[in-house]
Amino acid sequence: MAKIKHHNFLNTVHEVFTDAKQAGVLHLYAGGKSFSGRTIEIGGRELYHFGTTGYLGLEQDSRLKEAAMNAIEKYGTQFPLSKSYISNPLYKELEDYIKEMYGQPIVITKNSTLGHLGVIPSAVDDNDVIILDHQVHWSVQNAAKMLKTRSVPIEMIRHNNLEMLEDKIKKYQHSKRHIWYMADGIYSMYGDYAPVTELMALSEKYPQLHFYFDDVHGMSWVGKNGTGYVLDQLGELPENVLLFGTLSKTFGASGAVLACSNPKLYDKIKTFGGPLTFSAQLEPASVAAAMASAQIHLSPEIYDLQHELRERIDYFNACLSATELPLIDQNESPVFYIGTGMPKTGYNFVNRLMQEGFYVNLGIFPAVPVKNTGVRITISRHNEKKEIKGLVEAMEHHFPLALEDTQTNAERVFHAFKMEPKTLRDPKVSSELTVEVIDTIDHVEKEAWNQSLGGQGVYDWEGLKFLEEVFQGNPRKEHNWSFRYVVIKDTDGIPILMTFVTLSIWKDDMLAQAQISAAIEEERKTDPYHLSSMVLSLGCLFTEGDHLYWNASHSLGKEARDKLLETLEKLEQRFGAKMTVLRDFGEHTVWNEALYGGGFLRVQMPNACYVVLNGVDSMEDYLQRLSSRNRRHFRKDVQPYLDRAKTIVLPKLSKSELEQVKSLFGEVQSRNLGLNTFSFPDSLFEKMNENHLWEFIVLCSLDKPEKIVGVMFCYTNLNQVFVPAFVGMDYDGLEEFAIYRQLLFRTIERAIGLGIPKIDFGLTAAFEKRKLGATVEKKYAYLQTNDNFILELLGIMEGQH
């Protein structure tokens, strides 16, 4: 497999959001002339609102509204000055109220995102380290990344994994001044908590451990004076904790607040905090509304409001407990998450609930892993118990129907969230398809396989027989691959779909930037399998091309496609794979919608290259068919080097020649950190040497004929396609001999000589191949991961090395 292009994360997110938008569940517009909080108008229909983050309903409180209107009348719509110079007349009073709430010095910011951008670079010194919970809010992660420019190390741990956190602390305890762990108090998707008590116990063991909590979703509905979940757990704010709360969401106004009990650190942040210094300040209306809300928070009324919300939360939990719905985390927060697994099931479920008169949020990538799509439901004081009960009844009715509509079942949903399956009505299962999963090519009918998938890559029947022999029975686990052949037939026994997959260990950074892989390779010197995972892949790391035969015109074609995805999911479960990769699709594949809906993300690969030689009689004929520009390239950059080395085509190598080409291949692989894979077993080259379908195009030095400077490892597939699968080069002679260009030229020459009509040039070095007449096509892979941890970890590492 050739070097993968580093996909643009934002492009991937854009495609996912576009898919959800087209399904009618994202980027909606509310309608109506007014808004009560209890209902919301969408598409001309009034829906009960179960998607708000204003859990106490204070945004509709008349006292906050009146305060905001009075402030506009007195002070205008904004106060256009930096707070560094002068604050609007209401700011001091608001700060006093919020300080009284927390009992600590505070800093008010325009919003939490700008607050993090201002506070984190001020609070964290160059001699510190940051450890992120991988589910901490994007705004915290984004602000932390700013410190890469100051060479502050940034690490990441799996969500709430205290054992992993302690390992990171031990790594830095003797080299760093402060170790900052950054987490949410309440996580916005599943509504689960940070283990605050356990974390504080850890800080007693490691005094340099400091905490940065974003508790905007824990604000107001819990705690003394509504100061949130984290402070409720702490009791008092220690000096090693920075705590972010919000003046928006449940607080009902706008802005965010930082509480800090360390006087020196507070002064440092307050004096100069980037956006805190240069950004616009809160509008007078927002300040006044926040003051009115703060007065409520400082009164006994806040506890009455919290109690009213608690009753509704408890009631919703009680209603849910009587169902078999997959509630992902049962707790006492106002945030609930019902898993749907695949995005298309989530789209269907949300649309069904809206048709029943209930608005809920869709939880989707990147907020959650794609295959952990679900419905996020928030409970507020606006919701009445009869509406809560109605929502649960609607979900209980429509959930199995959504599963049925999207050809999935409850077991798949529960497995996606690592939960014990519950009994739910499963969708109807078609009996018109037969699915065979075969564990060796020996048990696959040779003619049928070659008719469907032969003539491309190294995966005709003989090629797969060769690969099975190479990648089994080796001493190292990365050299042993499990092959499975999937054949889906109709009732007449005619194949509708055929493919093969492999299970093998991949480096998690295989698709990462080269400098990231270089840093991770340092760790692998002591731990060879650091950051590596078992992957289920269409095709294998040895093959390129269209690994899938599919009769799209068959009446059961779409059902066969869905059955393949379900079969791959079962194989992933059985083998314990962490990721499934479907490879080598074209840009406009008809599979795109089904794969996105099934929980796959699309990433662009390098362009595929091939040469069609039909009707070409000789190399001279081929060169004449090139464009004038490409002929000039040949005359300037290839032809002058052809006499500098001797070209030999060898069906078999001597022992010394075999050792040389192994070494040359190793040189290429070791330099290709952009596609960072494990090595191939030594037996690969011995078995190539023994197999009549493989041959070696060898370049030798004229001065030292016994010295090989370049080699192309070539496979002939059914005399239909010539496959230069791998290259080996002596990098010391790269420019002297123009080794790569010579090998490309000699490969074309050899294929013409053999009378083979096509060369499968693979995915690498498209620019060089195009100049010698190759046709170039865009190719894509689709990835499905169990969680986002590796994606986010590699994202954090970008720019650090």
UniProtKB/TrEMBL annotation:
Cofactor: pyridoxal 5'-phosphate
Aminotransferase class I/classII large domain sequence ranges: 50-385
InterPro entries (alphabetical): Acyl_CoA_acyltransferase, Aminotransferase_I/II_large, AON_synthase_class-II, PyrdxlP-dep_Trfase, PyrdxlP-dep_Trfase_major, PyrdxlP-dep_Trfase_small
Keywords: Aminotransferase, Transferase
A Pfam family annotated for this UniProt entry: Aminotran_1_2
Molecular function terms, GO-annotated: transaminase activity
RNA-binding found in the keyword field: no
Keyword Transferase: yes
Ranges in coiled-coil conformation: none
PANTHER family: CLASS II AMINOTRANSFERASE/8-AMINO-7-OXONONANOATE SYNTHASE, LD36009P
Record's protein name: Aminotransferase class I/II-fold pyridoxal phosphate-dependent enzyme
